[in-house]
Automatic annotation (TrEMBL):
<dbReference type="InterPro" id="IPR015590">
    <property type="entry name" value="Aldehyde_DH_dom"/>
</dbReference>
<dbReference type="GO" id="GO:0009450">
    <property type="term" value="P:gamma-aminobutyric acid catabolic process"/>
</dbReference>
<keyword id="KW-0630">Potassium</keyword>
<dbReference type="InterPro" id="IPR016162">
    <property type="entry name" value="Ald_DH_N"/>
</dbReference>
<dbReference type="InterPro" id="IPR016161">
    <property type="entry name" value="Ald_DH/histidinol_DH"/>
</dbReference>
<dbReference type="InterPro" id="IPR010102">
    <property type="entry name" value="Succ_semiAld_DH"/>
</dbReference>
<dbReference type="InterPro" id="IPR050740">
    <property type="entry name" value="Aldehyde_DH_Superfamily"/>
</dbReference>
<dbReference type="InterPro" id="IPR029510">
    <property type="entry name" value="Ald_DH_CS_GLU"/>
</dbReference>
<dbReference type="InterPro" id="IPR016163">
    <property type="entry name" value="Ald_DH_C"/>
</dbReference>
<feature type="active site">
    <location>
        <position position="263"/>
    </location>
</feature>
<protein>
    <submittedName>
        <fullName>Succinate-semialdehyde dehydrogenase I, NADP-dependent</fullName>
        <ecNumber>1.2.1.16</ecNumber>
    </submittedName>
</protein>
<comment type="similarity">
    <text>Belongs to the aldehyde dehydrogenase family.</text>
</comment>
<dbReference type="Pfam" id="PF00171">
    <property type="entry name" value="Aldedh"/>
</dbReference>
<feature type="domain" description="Aldehyde dehydrogenase">
    <location>
        <begin position="32"/>
        <end position="485"/>
    </location>
</feature>
<dbReference type="GO" id="GO:0004777">
    <property type="term" value="F:succinate-semialdehyde dehydrogenase (NAD+) activity"/>
</dbReference>
<keyword id="KW-0560">Oxidoreductase</keyword>
<keyword id="KW-0558">Oxidation</keyword>
Length: 491
């Protein structure tokens, strides 16, 4: 059955979507099921896509498996050149990609453009790193043998990407895999599949051989995920999403002892000590809390402010938050877009209600904007205690709870008292304190006097139940390589 082209309404991207119905990288549906993609700002129907399942996923895995040996056999330079071509096409079509991203996810267009640029940066980085996969020689215990280590691609990789960064997560996951010599089967989030489709269309134009990159559209991830985890042709799973789903994928992979990379939930503390630059701390808190409407795994979720500067910080912070304009992502003045769906609205409202019932004070915001859409006022709560849900769970929305503290050692203990360990932030000027706190915080990433730290050159990942493995940097490449020891006798 021929693939039904997506129905793109009110958006004009013929260069990206004109031939998507015949792309080799897109699986062929075996039934008439479809699902719809909507703009969260307006409720407008953006596209109707084929709803794929186990059969299509298995076929995509077979294609990736058949292409694996040939892709791995290419020289590092040949794989690098392919990534470079894809990178350049992403750059050339950045405005269209950003517009698609804003339409399906809702984030302000300026943020979407920044994300597309970040996606291109990952492709550039791993196009370069493809040429730097090195082995090693080992001094042998006797003169008649030689010992060395080589690194080879792990094989077919199944990847599942989230809705909150639908362009950069695609690039961050699959560019190191491709650089290492692995082939890919990707399932993007059902809320935001269009930008992934556009990026894969550009990958096809870049000249990737058939079967190297494979895309699965699906409205439900369960069946696709089970097939990726259970199919023995898939050697590794890379997933970004909730800790709950990450645990499930680990269990499903355990029978085959399949390798996994998991970037899961967070509950990031943001600590302001009394020796901090308060203006800089407010700037950092705005950035770390309200970027992408607070819908990031590294969002500041608990703001701890020392008593000596608490009131000054709160006053300045609330003033800045009140100035944040919420609106459609295509509105040039919008700083915050909509939440992804109504479930997100319900969650943030429940966290606020619980906090207020237990003595919390709403300093600004606290309500939906309008009866339609999924817009919510950026909100600041004070008088927060540890028994409140907002102090224990990740909100994933524009809600900033501020917690007063006195003792510096105790606040680090409270910051660490969580199952999560993805990102943390703190502001301080005393060098002794900076080193002590940075080393004591149990998080994979720590921002010191900054509210933003993601970079393609740095390892992104967490400790504890925030995940396994790292993405980005040279370390991200290692997760897609097998180490093989060679011992040569009779030399």
């Amino acid at each position: 059955m021929p693939l039904r082209p997506p129905l793109i309404r009110h958006l004009k991207f013929p260069d990206l979507f004109g031939a998507i119905d015949c792309l080799p990288c897109l699986g062929t549906p075996v039934n008439d099921r479809t699902f719809e993609v909507f703009n969260p700002s307006t409720g407008e129907l953006l596209a109707e896509l084929p709803d794929m399942g186990v059969t299509e996923t298995r076929a995509a895995i077979d294609k990736a498996f058949a292409a694996q040996a040939g892709w791995a056999a290419l020289t590092a330079r040949e794989r690098s050149d392919m990534l470079w071509r894809w990178h350049q096409l992403i750059v050339d079509h950045a405005d269209d990609l950003a517009a698609i991203l804003t339409a399906e996810m809702g984030k302000p267009l300026a943020e979407a453009k920044s994300e597309v640029s970040h996606a291109a940066a990952y492709l550039q980085w791993y196009a370069e790193e493809a040429n730097r996969i090195y082995g090693e020689t080992i001094s042998p215990p006797s003169t008649d043998r030689r010992m060395l280590v080589i690194k080879q691609p792990i094989g077919v990789v199944g990847t599942i990407t989230p809705w909150n960064f639908p362009a950069s997560m695609v690039a961050r996951k699959i560019s190191p895999a491709l650089a290492a010599g692995c082939t890919i089967v990707l399932k993007p989030a059902e809320q935001t599949p269009l930008v992934a489709g556009a990026m894969f269309a550009l990958a096809h134009k870049a000249g990737f051989p058939e079967g190297v990159v494979n895309l699965i559209y699906a409205s439900e991830g369960d069946a696709v995920g089970r097939e990726l985890c259970s199919n023995p042709k898939v050697r590794k799973i890379s997933f970004t999403g909730s800790t709950e789903v990450g645990r499930l994928l680990m269990r499903q992979c355990s029978d085959q002892v399949k390798k996994v990379s998991l970037e899961l939930g967070g509950n990031a503390p943001f600590i302001v000590f009394d020796d901090a630059d308060i203006g800089a701390a407010v700037d950092g808190a705005i950035q770390a809390k309200f970027r992408n409407a607070g819908q990031t795994c590294v969002s500041a979720n608990r703001l701890y402010v020392q008593s000596g500067v608490h009131d000054e910080f709160v006053d300045k912070f609330v003033e800045r938050v009140r100035q944040l304009h919420v609106g459609d992502g295509f509105d040039p003045g919008a700083a915050i877009g909509p939440l992804i769906d109504r479930r997100a609205l319900t969650k943030i409202e429940s966290h606020i209600a619980d906090a207020v019932a237990k003595g919390g004070i709403v300093r600004c915001g606290g309500d939906r904007i309008g009866k339609e859409g999924t817009f919510f006022q950026p909100t600041v709560l004070t008088d927060i205690s540890r028994d409140m849900t907002v102090a224990q769970e990740e909100t994933f929305g524009p809600l900033a709870p501020v917690i007063r503290f006195d003792d510096a050692d105790q606040v680090v203990h409270e910051a660490n008292d969580t199952i999560y360990g993805l990102a943390a932030y703190f502001y301080a000027s005393n060098l002794k304190r900076v080193w002590r706190v940075a080393e004591t915080l149990e998080y994979g990433m720590v921002g010191i006097n900054t509210g933003r730290m993601s970079s393609e050159a740095a390892p992104f990942g967490g400790m504890k139940q925030s995940g396994i493995g790292r993405e980005g940097s040279r370390h991200g490449l290692e997760d897609y390589l097998e180490m093989k020891y060679l011992c040569m006798g009779g030399i």
